[in-house]
Structures are given as C-alpha cells and as structure tokens.
C-alpha cells in the first residue's frame, strides 16, 4: 500500500471513530419587540442569520415577546430557572436585573466598546452587564419661521435657552393666539416617558429622583429646594395653559405639531422624520433648556446582555460582539431611525453622518445625555416619580407630593437593605 493510500486509510478510520460532525450549540435569545417595529425585528433576524452562517459552533434562535409583557416574562422565567442565554433589557432596568441575579457581567473586555456612546453601556457594581446597539435622544422640536416671527432666539448646544428665556418664549407663543398650546410635552404617555423625558428637567434644576452620591435616600434630592422650584414651575405650565395636561389625547400628540396646534414639541429622534418631511429646512431640533445646572436629556435604551442562567456565556458573548459591529449599528439606525452607538457607525448612515438631517441628535446624546439613576431601586422610584409629576400637573400641593414620593422611595431603599449600595 502506498503512502497516500495509508494516509487515506488513517483519515477514514479517524473520521469513523469521531462519528458525524457535531451540531452547533443552540443559544436562545429573548427580545421585547413582538408586534412592534417590523424593521427592527427584520434587522435582528438578519444579524442572527449572518452570525449563524459565519461560524459552526453556535446557533442563535430568537423568541419575541410583546413589550408590555416582556419584563414579566423575564421575571417569571428567572423564578422558574428558565431564562434564555441572551436577553435584551431596557437600560435603566438593567441594574435591578443584575442585582436580582437575572444577569451576569459580560465576559467581554470593556475596551471593545471604548468608542460607544456612554448611554449605550450598562454598568452595575463596577462591571459591564449590557451594551446597546443604539441610543435615543430628546430635543425641542420647533420651526425656524415660528421662532423668527415671534422674535425668539434660536438656541444652540453652546448657548441653550435659560429658564427665563424658555418661559418667556412660551408666554410669547401663547399670546400670539396662533396655537392651541405653545408646548406639547406628550403628557398622554404615562409610562417610562415621564422619568426619561421629564426627570432631566428636574436634574437641570438641581434635583434628582434619588441622591446619587449614596443612592440610599431620595430625601433632599426629590423634595429639596431645587426640586420644589422645579415642581412649582412644572405645575405652572398647566395652570397657565402653556402645555396640555394629563388628559391629553394621544391623537393630538401624534399630529398636533404637524398640524400647527403646538408651536413646540418635546420629542425624541424616533419621531423626527415626519416633521422633517413636512417642514424641510424650516424644521429645527433644539437642545434642552438650561434650568440652572446645565442642560440635560435622558439616555440609555434597549441593550443586549447575558442571563445568569446561561451555560454558554462564551457563545452569547461571541454573538453580542458580532452584533455590535459598526455595520450593524448603522443598519439599525437606517432601519428604525435611532442614534448609532458609535461615531464610525454614524458616518455609515444617511441621517446621522456629518451633515445628515438627524446628526444633531448624536451631538445632543454625546453632550447633554444623563442616564437615569443607576440603581436596582430605579424600578420602584420611577413609578413614584411618574405619579408625583402627574399629580402635580393635576394641581396637587407640590411640597406635600414630593415629600410623599421621597418618603416612599427612601422606605423602599431601606426595605431592600440599600439595594447593594
């Protein structure tokens, strides 16, 4: 038997002993977007397909849940010990899930994400637990012609409106008699929008939902002098009919700015294309006002992480690294309009590249964004904040309402032994 024949025989025997090729290990992934934006789901499906085809060790399989039921599904699965390998998590919720042992730190060197917007990185207890493929930012929607017609200065990132300027602008717009209200705050959306969109106003006044220096109390932060000043101004917006209140119709919010019912609108980049299409170069996306302690907007959107129950954290990490390539960050932005997580990815998009129609939102996110309080107690505190702002808008006593919210949040922190802080 020749040398080649002998070698062939050895290879055949080795193959026979080894048996058939091993199948890829399945990685389960849960996602909150069933019934939501189909472009977002399609982009996730594309990334999963390309990851599965790029290697033979792992196969990601996606299960989607309606957003309204997603958090409850995660909690139930954690109790039952049936969490998937990969989960997506809303940025401000992540510390609670990490503290509750639903998640494990990412086994990925953090320097891999050195160029990511800060709001896209989810930290808890000094460790990185999650990373987002996009971020979101809020701006003051306005029309250049409306501001100029009413003699209102157009603010910039370097020189935003002051409290006095902003308030005077609202009064001037109301007195023009041309609008149902000068400002739309989307008061109809009573979910996470309230802490995401409105707590930055409080923080710019100098208050906060909790005291971030210790995370052990809300006393002084939510009910101190700065917070009360904010609360009084907040209540006055509705007393003076400068903004529609909590009974606002959803349809009015959706179309009011486009139809000219509202002069200004506090809204996110996810809704920016419709007014751009309608108003073209007349459309402006303005920075948050500075209420005394610097302009602030919210940060952190949905992010990817690994469940504590996963036995395949190495494979889950491979998928997350794959999904966070610039080309996929750009693909998500092009599909759903949100902010790419890196400047490099932004340059690969139509709307966020230099000179793009929505590039201003990347700058807003980079320069004004502040994450919601990074604590497991945020889940409870956010509900108290929402209730307090709604009650104050409806005419409740400002100091009493903020005192009650601060007491409830502080009691919850103490009940949970400080949430690990």
The radius of gyration computed from the alpha-carbon positions, rounded to a whole number of angstroms, is 25 Å
Largest sheet: 7 strands, mixed
Number of helices: 16
CATH class of the largest domain: Alpha Beta
Structural class: alpha/beta
User: What fraction of residues sit in β-strands?
Assistant: 15-25%
CATH topology name of the largest domain, in short, is D-Maltodextrin-Binding Protein, domain 2
Low-pLDDT regions: 1-21
Distance between the termini: 74 Å
Note the overall shape.
globular
Number of domains: 2
Give the beta-strand count: 15
CATH architecture of the largest domain: 3-Layer(aba) Sandwich
Mean pLDDT across all amino acids: 93
- The H-level CATH homologous superfamily of the largest domain, spelled out, is Periplasmic binding protein-like II
Helix amount, in percent? 40-55%
């Amino acid at each position: 038997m020749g040398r080649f024949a002998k070698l062939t025989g050895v290879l055949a025997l080795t193959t026979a002993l080894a048996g058939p090729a091993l199948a890829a290990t399945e990685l389960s992934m849960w996602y909150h977007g069933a019934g939501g934006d189909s472009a977002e789901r399609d982009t996730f499906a594309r990334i999963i397909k390309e990851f599965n085809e790029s290697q033979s060790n792992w196969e990601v399989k996606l299960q989607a849940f309606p957003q309204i039921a997603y958090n409850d599904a995660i909690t139930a699965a954690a109790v039952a010990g049936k969490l998937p390998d990969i989960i997506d998590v809303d940025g401000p919720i992540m510390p609670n899930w990490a503290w509750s042992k639903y998640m494990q730190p990412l086994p990925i060197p953090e320097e891999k994400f050195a160029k990511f917007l800060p709001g896209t990185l989810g930290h808890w207890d000094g460790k990185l637990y999650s990373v987002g493929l996009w971020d979101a930012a809020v701006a003051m929607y306005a029309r250049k012609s409306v501001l100029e017609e009413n003699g209102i200065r157009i603010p910039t990132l370097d020189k935003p409106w002051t409290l006095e300027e902003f308030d005077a602008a609202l009064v001037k717009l109301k007195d023009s008699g041309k609008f149902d209200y000068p400002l739309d705050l989307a008061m109809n959306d009573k979910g996470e929008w309230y802490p995401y969109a409105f707590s930055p106003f409080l923080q710019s006044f100098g208050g906060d939902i909790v005291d971030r220096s210790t995370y052990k109390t809300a006393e002084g932060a939510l009910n101190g002098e700065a917070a009360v000043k904010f609360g009084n101004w907040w209540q006055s917006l509705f007393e003076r009919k400068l903004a529609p209140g909590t009974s606002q119709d959803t349809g009015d919010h959706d179309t009011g700015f486009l139809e000219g019912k509202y002069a200004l609108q506090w809204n996110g980049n996810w809704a920016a294309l419709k007014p751009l299409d309608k108003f073209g170069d007349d459309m402006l996306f303005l920075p948050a006002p500075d209420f005394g302690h610097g302009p602030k907007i919210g940060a952190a959107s949905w992010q990817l992480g690994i469940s504590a129950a996963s036995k395949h954290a190495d494979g889950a990490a491979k998928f997350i690294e794959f999904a966070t390539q610039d080309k996929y960050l750009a693909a998500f932005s092009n599909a759903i309009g949100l902010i790419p997580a890196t400047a490099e990815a932004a340059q690969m998009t139509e709307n966020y590249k230099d000179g793009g129609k929505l590039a201003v939102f990347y700058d807003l996110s980079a320069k004004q964004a502040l994450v919601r309080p990074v604590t497991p107690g945020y889940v409870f505190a956010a509900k108290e904040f929402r209730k307090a702002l709604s009650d104050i808008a409806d005419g409740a006593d400002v100091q009493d309402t903020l005192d009650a919210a601060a007491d409830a949040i502080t009691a919850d922190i103490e009940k949970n032994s400080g949430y690990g802080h």
